[in-house]
Amino acid sequence: MSLKQKISGLIGVVTLVFLLAGCGDQPEATEAADKEEEKVVGIIGPMEVEIDILHSHMEVEETTKKGNLTFYEGNLEGQPIVLVKSGIGKVNAASAAQMLISDFEADVLINSGVAGGIHPDLGLGDIVISTKTVHHDMDETAKDFKPGQIPYMDTRYFEANQKLIQLAKKGTKDLPEYVDVFKGPIATGDQFIASEEKANWIYETFDAYVVEMEGAAVGQVAYLNEIPYVVIRSASDDAGEEAAGIQENFVEEAAKNSSHVIEEMLKGM
Ligand code: ADE
Fold first, then answer.
1. What H or E segment, with its residue span, contains residue 23?
2. DSSP labels for 200-238?
3. Is there an atom of ligand 1 within 6 Å of 111 CB?
């Protein structure tokens, strides 16, 4: 066998080994790429009534208790999700949000639930998709910071993600006819607002459509972790003097509306 024949034989063997190795690797590489693209959506609802519907519609694969929180991992509308009832208020929401990111690898956060409507155009059951969120009870105005500004943080409002806002907007189809849909700022504080005067102050100061008790905490955690988020709320009351009674009668209907938007949104992800 000539040297040329030996070299060409060797090249043939090397090429074959290379091709076989390549063929074997290809499906794994594709699977890895698919996995990388599959986003895990962390969904936070403050109260039982705000997660009930999503929980009953999802396919739960694993239930994990961490401290006092229970996380449901699984699928809803073909989308991998982790659902948690955070409890009411900003610390509860922030803790749940950070656990979703750190322990359950959530890539995206959605906060769903009910709220007090403070914009004059808003009626009971109407949906508000957050464009941004702000803490209405953050107050260092005595040191010349604007209301809601966390001192030395480079933003006063936590911007929601545009793509999630668009998906949410698309998800508002098939809501009951009486429901109107708005996009706008959402104001958050550790207070159940039941005062027309306070509600007006929040509306005028922050241009907010609704007031609730978790959204900006989720927004702030998303901001700190540099991940996208959006808040979807349905008005369960008007944040006026009768808010508690009105909410009692309307909370289930409102929770149904926000859950509907979340489910529709997941279909488009
Ligand atoms: N969630 C629902 N209604 C609310 C209100 N009036 N104030 C704060 N959070 C709320």
1. helix 3-37
2. HHHHHHH--SEEESSHHHHHHHHHHHT--EEEEEEEEE-
3. no
Q: What is the whole-number distance in angstroms between the Cα of residue 258 and the centre of ligand 1?
A: 14
pLDDT digits (tens, 9 = 90+) for 126-155: 999 999 999 999 999 999 999 999 999 999
pLDDT attached to residue 2: 43
Please give the distance of CA 94 from its chain centroid, rounded to a whole number: 12
Residue from 112, 193, 231, 238 to probe ligand 1 pocket by mutation (most atoms less than 8 Å from CB): 193
- Name the DSSP letter for residue 40: P
Domain assignments of the chain as residue spans, ordered by start: 1-38, 39-267
**Tokens standing for residue 102:** 């750190």
Quick: pLDDT tens for 89-122.
Answer: 999 999 999 999 999 999 999 999 999 999 999 9
What token pair was written down for 254?
């409102």
Q: What fold, for 39-267?
A: Rossmann fold (3.40.50)
Q: Is 177 one of the annotated active-site residues of the chain?
A: no
Helices 162-170 and 243-267: crossing angle in degrees, nearest 10, is 100
In residues, how long is the chain? 269
Is the distance from CB of 223 to CB of 114 less than 8 angstroms?
no
pTM of the model: 0.87
Q: How far apart are CA 178 and CA 180, in angstroms?
A: 7
Residue 52 bears catalytic tag: no
